[in-house]
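During the first year of the project, the team set up a workflow for recording each protein of interest as an amino acid sequence followed immediately by a discrete structure-token representation. This format lets reviewers and collaborators read both layers of information side by side without switching files. As required by the reporting guidelines, we include two representative entries from the current panel. The first entry is reproduced here exactly as it appears in our internal archive.
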Amino acid sequence: MKKYPISLLILLLTLSTYANANWLTSLEDAQKMALASNKLVLVDFWATWCGPCKRMDSESWNQEDVQALMQNYVPVKIDIDRNRSIAQKYGVQGIPYIFILDGNGKILYQQMSYKRKTEVINLLKKYALKTDFLSSDLINFYKKETFASAFRLGIKYQDFSLYLGDSIKNDFLGVAEKYFDDARSFLKASDLKNKSLFEQKLDLFEIQEYLILQKPEKALKKLEKMNANTIHKSNKSFFDFLRYVSYLELEDDKNIMELQNEMSEADKKKAKLFIKSL
């Protein structure tokens, strides 16, 4: 896939072909625009012969209040007859099929069905987020898919999820998992030294997901299986941080006090993001 300097991506909007006044028709261009504008990609898989798709156009997509919400996204219509490989990649076997993707094509939301206008409005409001926080790491992964770029983006998605409501938190954590899976694959194929250190660090981030989801018992169970004596030196502070957050969520004052002095002020501040009651 040909890649362009990020400073030129904004020009693609005027160069792309539109299905109508609001939609791009190239997923590749839509992803580049999303990276350039810190937006998510709204994808509508459709076909010219699809009756429900045409109904959604007239009853939902073309309505003024819906189009106003679409400004929060980079919208793209994908004709499944002309783009069979893309439809196959995303497992599209029926239409209309709506997706919300990040700028690298990772799936945040997907559902196959006709949607009434109210359902479309609720969906667009739900995911109307700016991705500035993720921007540099999204672009780095787009430019070069490596262990480092995938790993950093997985971390960023986890951190981002801490600030999100419960209705979409799981979706962003799911994307973090996908980038961590990519990181594991790249790590396995790489010639990096200390692979075991990074594998362990990935395991720790998997445990952190349990804490973000308010499941401290599961987190502690996993941490206990990782004998403290086997923790790499550079992972020790993260390991202790996860134990500390687990005890905070469980309100285990004794263990909190034992670890509190080992926590930096930055760690204590971050720990509060995990605890809804703090």
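The second entry, processed by the same pipeline in the following quarter, appears below.
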Amino acid sequence: MNEKNNAAPSCPVARGIESVGDAWSMLILRDAHAGVTRFEQFRKNLGIAPTMLTKRLAALTEANLLERRVYSERPTREEYVLTASGQDFLPVLMMIGAWAQRNCGEHLARYIDDATGQEIEPIGIDAVTGAKLGTRPIRMSQLPGETA
């Protein structure tokens, strides 16, 4: 974690950002959720420099969001597939997109349920209370042994 985040090493937001890294990483994860797995596909879809893509794929692999799998022995070729942690990131991407749909302009793509054809409206819900996130005050609790 960088120096700014050392004051709150148990902060889940800081830790999550540290794991995902940056905008390129989120866009790589978005494309992986859409079925992209190969280096050249990511490079072409994103218009990202090969050196940057190599670094981001390595960081996402190190963070256990993607894993490398061999898909060709001769020549050896690898693809990048989502791990369970990477799959678990999809709701985060959808929430960022939903926020952008509400706050960043009128002409953005929409999420559509493939089975029903209906638009999806992603919202965060507390699984314990069923309350929509953002409608009630929240606070962070200290971990056992920590002081405020």
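For the second entry, the following points were noted during internal review. The first helix runs from residue 12 to 20. The first strand starts at residue 66 and ends at 72. Both points are flagged for discussion at the upcoming steering committee meeting.
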